[in-house]
Each structure stands twice: as C-alpha cells, then as structure tokens.
Amino acid sequence: MRVAVDCMAGDHAPAELVAGALAAQDDGVEPILVGVPEQLLPFLPEGGGGWSLEPSGQAVAEGEAPAQAFRRRPDASVFQAVRLVREGRADAAVSVGNTGAAVVAAAHVLGMLAAGRPWAGGPVIGFAPRTVVLDMGANVDVRPAQFLELAAMGTAYARAMLDVAAPRVALLSIGREQGKGNRQVKEAYDLLAGSAFRFVGNVEPYGLLAGDAEVVLCDGFVGNAVLKTSEALSEAILALALAELSGRAPEADLARFIRRVREHVQVAERMGGGPLLGVRGVVVVGHGASRVEAVRKAISTARDAVRGRLVERMEEELRRLSRTEDRKAESRSSRAGGNARS
C-alpha cells in the first residue's frame, strides 16, 4: 500500500511528518515522502528501504488562498502528493496542512464523483466510534437537496470504514420529532423520508453520543462547531481533572485518565484525520497540530479507506441515488400526464 504524505505541511513539519510516515511502515504502508528534498533529508535514515522520496515545492501556507496557490504553485507539496494518486503512483494521499488546499487538490486533480465540492466527514467523538458525522466543515452552506448526496457519502463511509452493512441515517436537529429544526432541516427531512436510505428521522446531540444512527447529517457550519466543541470540552475536562487530582492521584493513573479522555472525546487521537468524500481518490486530511502518532494514524486511515473500497462504494451509492431519483421523476411525470388527460 503506497501512501503519499505531504511532509511540508502542518505545524510540526517536516520532522514530525517524516517520523510519522516512517512509523507507518509497521502498519503495512510504503510511504512516499513528498517535500523539498534538502529539508527532508536531515530527518531520513541512512540506507533507505521501505519508503521513497518525491520532490515538491513548499507547502501551501495557512491563510494562503488555495485556488491562487494551485494556479501559481502547482508543485506545492499537497498538490504533488494528490497528483501521485491521479497518476497511479500512490494509492492515497495524506496532508495535515491547509485544508482548503487539500480540497482544491482533491477536486481539481482527482475530480469529483458528483457536482459540487468535496465533503468532510467521519466519527466526531470517541463515545460514538461507529457514527459518522458529515459535513464537518468543507461546506458550511448546504441546500436541502444536497442532503441526499450527503446521505450517500455517509452511507458509503459507514460501509467501507465502519463495516456497517445497513447504516441508519439521521438529521442532527434540536428535537427528535418531525417538524423540529430550521427550514433547511425540515425540507431535508421530507426528502430523506422519501428516499431509499434507511432514514430514522432526527437525532439530538445526545442521540449522536448514544449511537442512535450510524450516519448523522448536518451542514458544515454545524458539524465543525460540534467537532470543535467536543475538542474544547475535552480540554476543559482535562484542565479540571489536573487541577483537582494533581498531587492526589498517582501520576501514572492521571496520565492514563488523560489519555482515555482524549481517546473518547478527540477523534484525532484515534483516527488522525478523515477522508474527503465525493472525489475520485482517497485524500485524508488531518489536524495541523498533528505529531508523530496522529500522522501515523492518518496514514492508517488512508490505508483503511483504500482497503475498504471507499471510492467504489461512494460511486455505488451515488448510482443508487440517481436511479431512485430518476424513478421518482418518471412517476411524477406519469401522474402529471394522467391528470392532464383526465
């Protein structure tokens, strides 16, 4: 399994990225280290073996406009890493840098499975490890009709990455009853209720934590707020625990407690990142602050997405959605024709 790793991006590049990529060799991955050679070489072992180096330009910086960078600096590390996937030289790509640049690379270098932009999704909290939430920030404005495509992406993810044969699909809302939520949620509810997905209605945040559905849908504004709230909550809990327990509990027990809290609340501690959905290839985006272990886990997530046939499953779900919508359109047309004749 060959995974191209953008080693120039992230807060701790290139040292932590190179170290995480090399560590991933123990997980059955042959890393392709993408970056400026003279900046990577000091961190590489002598003699090589099990990895390769792919020259590129610098990273797309945080705050740099991704579309402009794509036009002006096509050799930037994230673009080159994704290009390797398109050329068949890598099975997947991983970047923990500018998320917008990864989205642009995925959309323009690999291409889209459907119209629009890539989606971001995955398990958002360790208390519900078999529940995927999407969108988590790639698209902050989502039209009600787009929730059908979101459901297709989430269903494909649950089948490929979580091994759920028949995932339940729900809308994140302020109440479980039909009719709860804003106009977007209410209109999306009606569309999903008439779809072929296993739609179970609305879930509240508690239902998200309880695993009441394997696929929970929301727009990227809400999803990203849920993600960041869970991260902030974990840090607040840890700060309180440290203040209350330091000096009272053995250090080893306290360290174990901190690790368990982060595993259950911060998804990056478990998966390292998530794949962009809706594109013709596997591109995993991780947190900019990722260190060695998070980088390694992001690479493992990319490996699992390839092994689980994520792209093929997304294509299957989109074809199924298209057939269902075509049949519904034909049915409406037939009814309209019958009414006209009568």
UniProtKB/TrEMBL annotation:
It comes from the Bacteria. The keyword Cell membrane does not apply. Residues 320-342 are annotated as: Disordered. Keywords: Acyltransferase, Cytoplasm, Lipid biosynthesis, Lipid metabolism, Phospholipid biosynthesis, Phospholipid metabolism, Transferase. Residues 320-333 have a biased composition (Basic and acidic residues). Its main location: cytoplasm. PANTHER family: FATTY ACID/PHOSPHOLIPID SYNTHESIS PROTEIN PLSX (PTHR30100), PHOSPHATE ACYLTRANSFERASE (PTHR30100:SF1). Belongs to the PlsX family. This is Phosphate acyltransferase. It comes from Limnochorda pilosa. The lineage of its organism: Bacteria, Bacillati, Bacillota, Limnochordia, Limnochordales.
